[in-house]
TrEMBL record:
GO terms for molecular function: DNA binding; structural constituent of chromatin. Pfam families: Bac_DNA_binding. GO terms for biological process: chromosome condensation. CDD domains: IHF_B. One of its GO terms (cellular component) is cytosol. This is DNA-binding protein HU. Keywords: DNA condensation, DNA-binding. It comes from the Bacteria. Belongs to the bacterial histone-like protein family. The keyword DNA-binding applies. The keyword Protein biosynthesis does not apply.
């Protein structure tokens, strides 16, 4: 599902104009990105957490030049779903229908 499809679905369910929904969704994403860039984590009860995960400094290999390179410690954005979210997905009949059957 794309962002445009999400916006359309929200607009249909709430009756709010698509333009207003688009502005709201874009504002939400901007707040999440800006807050995480400032080092803040975001916790949405019943949905999940947007957190910054620290990656340690490590030595990697450049295969084409056969040299070692150092990757400094850095942070990467991560999403951790809540228990409620996880249970909803685990119990989803639709996902179980999409699962390939083993012979």
């Amino acid at each position: 599902m794309t962002k445009a499809e999400v916006i359309t679905k929200i607009s249909e369910k709430t009756g709010i104009q698509k333009d207003d929904v688009t502005q709201t969704v874009e504002a939400f994403f901007k707040v999440v990105k800006d807050s995480m860039a400032e080092g803040e984590n975001i916790y949405v009860r019943g949905f999940g957490s947007f957190i910054n995960k620290k990656r340690a400094k490590k030595i990697a290999r450049n295969i084409s030049k056969n040299t070692a390179i150092v990757i400094d410690e850095h942070f990467v954005p991560s999403f951790k779903p809540s228990k409620v979210f996880i249970e909803k997905i685990k119990g989803s009949k639709k996902i179980k229908e999409l699962e390939p059957q083993e012979d």
